[in-house]
Amino acid sequence: MIKENNPPELPVGKEYWKSLDSLADTPGFEDWVSREFPEGASMLDGVQRRSFVKLMAASFGLAGLGMTGCRRPEHVILPYGKSPEELIPGVPAYYATSQPSSRGYIPLIVESHQGRPTKVEGNPSYLPYGGSTDIYSQASVLDLYDPDRAQGSFSRKQLKSGVNRWKKVPTASILDSLTEEVSSGKVALLANHSHSLTRGSLIEKAKAKGIKFFEHDVVDYCSAERQLGEALGIELGMRAVPKLGSAKRVLSLDNDFLGNREANELANSKSFMGGRKVLNPGDAKKMNRLYMVEADLSRTGGVADHRLRLDSSRMTAFASLVAAELLSKTKTIDAAVINHLKKLGVGAKKHQAWVLEVVADLLSLPKQSVVLAGSHLPEEVQLIAYAMNRALGSIGQTIDYLQTDNTDGSIGSLVKLIEDGEIERLIILGGNPIYHTKGFINWENLSKKLKYTARLGASIDESSQIADHHIGQSHYLESWDLGLTWDKSVAVPVQPLLAPLFDTISETSLLAHLIGEDGDDHSRVKDLHETLSSGARFDDFLRLGYLDYKATLVNDVDPKSAILSIKPKQVKAAPLSADQLDILIIPDFHAHDGQYSNNGWMQECPDPISKLTWDNALLISPVLALELEAKHPGIGLLPKPTMLNKSGQIAPDVAQFDGGKQKAPVVVVSLDDRKIEAPLYVQPGLADYTVVATLGFGRTHVGRVGQGTGYDSTPLLNGSGSLILKGASLEPTGRFQILANVQEHWSMEGRAIVREANADEYISDPDFADHMGAESHSPPMWGKDQDKSLEEKATSTPRGNSAYEHPDHTYEKSDVFGIHQWGMTIDLNQCTGCSACVVACQSENNIPVVGKDQVLRGREMHWIRLDRYFSSTARDGAEIPSDVQVSFQGVACMHCETAPCESVCPVNATVHDEEGLNAMAYNRCVGTRYCANNCPYKVRRFNFFDWNKRKTDELYQGPIGDKNDSLVDMGKNPDVTVRMRGIMEKCTYCVQRIQESKIRTKVNAQRTAKLESGKDGAGIKLETSDLKVPDGTIKTACQQVCPSEAIVFGDISDPKSEVSKLKNNPRDYSVLGYLNTRPRTTFLAKVRNPNPRMPDFASSPHSAREYHDKAHPSHHGDEHGAH
Amino acid sequence: MRNIFPRWSNTIPVKLIISLGILGAVVTAGITYYATPKYTRVGYQPTQPVSYNHEFHAGELGLDCRYCHTGVDKSSHANVPGANVCMSCHQNIKGDSPLLEPVRASFYGEDSNKDGKLSEGEDINGDGILNAGPAIPWVRIHKAPDYVYFNHAIHVNRGISCVECHGRVDQMVEVHHDKHLSMAFCLDCHRNPEKALRPMDEVTNLSWQASDKDGVDPLIAQVHAGLELKDNWGVHPPLSCTGCHR
């Protein structure tokens, strides 16, 4: 027996590992990866094969009897009585609108099919986002068709058992009673912070009428700007808006500017990742560099060139240390301030070496460097970051400080006023304050002091439970509004795409009603536009979707006295240990603060880092996991080294994985007298003694999708508004929870899948990607055509190029060879892992949601998945490393020219088309799943059930199961088939968009030529170039949504197309190229830009070093020649 | 000598005959159902809610197809006209015909005094809009399966006439399903588009035929003309799945 806390050394680790289990190389895992579908995925549940055959025989017999049942049902066509102008049935309409959110209004273009909004895209006229959207905007269209929406307004009746019964009443009648209540006075409004100008003006009028207004946000993106303004002693907010396009050196103090913890994710992704675009060695020299200091592992940390793990409570001390070093070098501030900062920074002294080099690097490019502080950090950090940016000369160059309004009363003051009897009537507008604040407000007692409570909300949730009336809130696609983007550079309209589906009203309508204002939302928006634009045309505003708006910059403020007033007591933090933990509470990837917890797309989209779906977990560091394991043996957190496996390595047992289902131990988290229960998840890259909890889960009053998912972390929150909590401890309960983690599926471990190099390596060897992988050892894939151009290879090399004879596909010899050859590149250097592509694809292609139970069986349906790999420096055996590098790789169908799936299909359901698409004819597929078996990329998805037709909990009932609510069907894209049970499906390169563009190009060419000729069209002559779709016309859904433009799609037979140019870049490589599948989707290798002077510098990315260690164990460091 | 065949084998011939009979009946029924035009709905002619006469309007009066089916050259879908299209003529002609009652009901809707303005007492559902009446429930005759994405615009604009799929609608009093519109039907034309291509101006002229200058067979004349158009216009109809199935 080997002692558990003394793990023996393993000879060599894996290059890439996707989970603790795969790293550990267990026999169970090997068995697991050797199967195509995870265990259980291809088994019939509950029905034995024999009885299944019996049943089928009987049903075939019955089918024969009722032949008349096969007749096509009678359809009717219902045309308009008066056709609306400019509406052509079958042609989608696009409207400019925007999504109101706490991160500012997000400009959108929404596609509508005969009045049904189906797909959300970014508005490309708003340049900072460049036509991209985040994942939440993509998913928001599903909320419109959520069957669990409040489909009208309701009045509450509490039964004796304490259960609330809701009775539907017309909204108009509730509004009438609301008018009465308001006239009695002592009214308060409680709402989320909003960037709406319409609401702002209405609130001002309401305040003038004596209505009090309070705001509460649990994830408060605006807290940083308020705190900074306060700290500097000015009456206004100071919003830091980074301009990363001109930044070359970025130090981020726990600022997740590429993720959902900061507001301007899209603009930051576009500008920052734009500075990492490397097309030639010259670009690599100019590449930007990111230093990240953080407690959890965020997506921004995944992109960082240098990452320092630091517990949340240490951030202020660390910031002080950096500032002390930086300001002492710039000499722009008094020595007293520097000495004070040095004193404050004592607690972070052990990071001195790291800090010195960062400061030197920041100072090497003044005015092109910037320091960013996380919006959840205390005001001292905001202040210190401001002082550093000021000293670096970054203000106005790489960061702007915008003037914002001071916000309204907080929820704490509201509670006090209610307790004092100053407020008797409460109207809650949107949000979900009771869910978020129940940790420090006793709403049950408080509601007894209220005479009347009304709630405006999209669904009946926790906050409705104390309300007398719940008023259904219209979705933003059903409302008029006008608001500002986060950077306040433009005002954008919210215009409805359809009239409210149900008896619901918008927030602004309700407010206008409260203050007795006449007119509808439309006229209010129109009037507001008129004042803002001084008379420009309203129609143009709606068509363009934005109006320039001038934000005011804050004048320079000297932070000297403010810094000197920071008391060392505020910065000093108690020592951390397993019993004195920091808790960092962050918005959840899936649910954000809870507003998306009933959204199936969001629930099922895997968290980019942890890869969890349908749940949240309490993330803990490997160091803490080891300590917990030592303290509570048998907690079941880490693999235990117990026995030898087949290959002679010490293998841990697979206790925490049960058939690929992750068993997470449930612990009690205690913080003072607050307690919650949560499943643990060991996350590499976390600060040792910070545990990360997420918001938005464990909701008690939520629709069918969000019911029973995750744990609730809000009871931990106190009234301070801080999301960093100190002094927590964990105690195991002995119970386990199964987490639906998709990271075990389709592992591509141990090969040069993601290829990476440092910028220096890339400059000296731009072809590095070609020198990696098995294909660098094999004869050229293209045979004698190896050196031909991409265009020639795509159009003339017979597919296969193998020993077998292949049909001649050359353009000259074949009448049916397409005039385009489609291909795609994915730039791994641009990907931040935001996963917006996953949901965009789901929305565009009618991809169903399968539910947690089916995800656990490995049956998720996403056409594009985002593989996340970790790599690290030398590890000690099976020990989980703490410092990791993260690599993301989006994998969808590669459209291989010699596709292995095609040759095994017995019914020719998957074949190549003339333009290089690997087509999937659903109506021909019989569901043998041979193709998925033969796909080396594991990108094919099988419909085990009628996901689209049946309710998720009725799947196993088969045809007798209940059907889905038809409301959801309204959001389906009519240009894409809705697949049924027994059908294989996969990425089609958005073939519907390709076909539409081709048709439009041909029709336009033909009509234009005819008009020009003036004849009957018989004599016109069209060249191939006239019929070709211009480059850039077709954007796949994943490409269109991507903020960092990582995905490029186009015609590879056109040497001038964007995609051809990228494919000719030396960084371009094929994944598993040695299989000679000749994929049409290729990847551009990743380039990292570390600083050689940093203490944690590695001359190669960890993954590249591990690859070379394994591929060439005998000659370390030898130049690997090209073949 | 022992019997070679056991006793039970005596019934085999009878069983065989009965089985063959059943098999024959099933095959006959199957063919009758699946291999006749009835299955593909050729000849399907439902009764429409308004007895619109295509022969009179499109044939005798010579209305262009696109006068009513306005979206056919712009959209994948050839729309059935709204009641407003009918009423653009029938407000003046045969305005009181009882046959047009459903059209009038659909067009005027809440507008009971037919002045086009919202007057006192007309807003029945109280939404402040003068709503149109109930839609006319035209019965669909031609229907491609849900997994087929047929696009009218590309066919009409590239010189494929309506007549190729819908037959001589200008000679039909009541429209019926004329061609079987199976996948073979589509592919036949996609493989040999020259059999159907015609000048763009003649697309809605259902009686058009390629001119046979040299007195050759009209079919051959069509192929000659079609081949020339195919070459000039670069017509390569898709033959793979993605052309129609998405």
What is the element layout, followed by pairings?
The complex is a heterodimer of chains A (1123) and B (246).
Chain A: H1 20-24, H2 27-34, H3 49-65, E1 76-77, E2 93-99, E3 106-113, E4 116-122, H4 135-144, E5 153-158, E6 164-169, H5 171-183, E7 187-191, H6 197-208, E8 212-215, H7 223-231, E9 237-242, E10 249-253, H8 265-274, H9 281-286, E11 289-294, H10 299-303, E12 306-309, H11 315-330, H12 335-344, H13 352-364, E13 369-373, H14 379-392, E14 399-404, H15 411-419, E15 425-429, H16 433-437, H17 443-448, E16 452-457, E17 469-472, E18 481-484, E19 490-494, H18 507-514, H19 521-533, H20 538-544, E20 547-548, H21 560-564, H22 568-571, E21 581-586, H23 600-604, E22 612-613, E23 618-620, H24 622-631, E24 641-644, E25 650-652, E26 657-658, E27 661-671, E28 674-682, E29 690-694, E30 724-741, E31 756-758, H25 759-764, H26 790-796, E32 822-827, H27 836-844, H28 852-856, E33 865-872, E34 884-891, H29 900-904, E35 910-912, E36 918-920, H30 930-934, E37 941-942, E38 984-985, H31 991-1013, H32 1024-1027, H33 1037-1041, E39 1047-1051, H34 1058-1063, E40 1068-1069, E41 1081-1084, E42 1086-1088, H35 1102-1111
Parallel strand pairs in A: 7-8, 7-15, 10-11, 10-13, 11-12, 15-16, 16-17, 21-29, 23-28, 31-42, 32-41
Antiparallel strand pairs in A: 2-3, 3-4, 5-6, 5-17, 9-14, 18-19, 19-20, 21-30, 22-30, 24-25, 26-27, 27-28, 27-30, 32-39, 33-34, 35-36, 37-38, 40-41
Chain B: H1 12-34, H2 54-60, H3 65-68, H4 83-90, H5 101-108, E1 138-139, H6 152-157, H7 163-166, H8 183-191, H9 218-233
Helix pairs in contact in B: 4-5
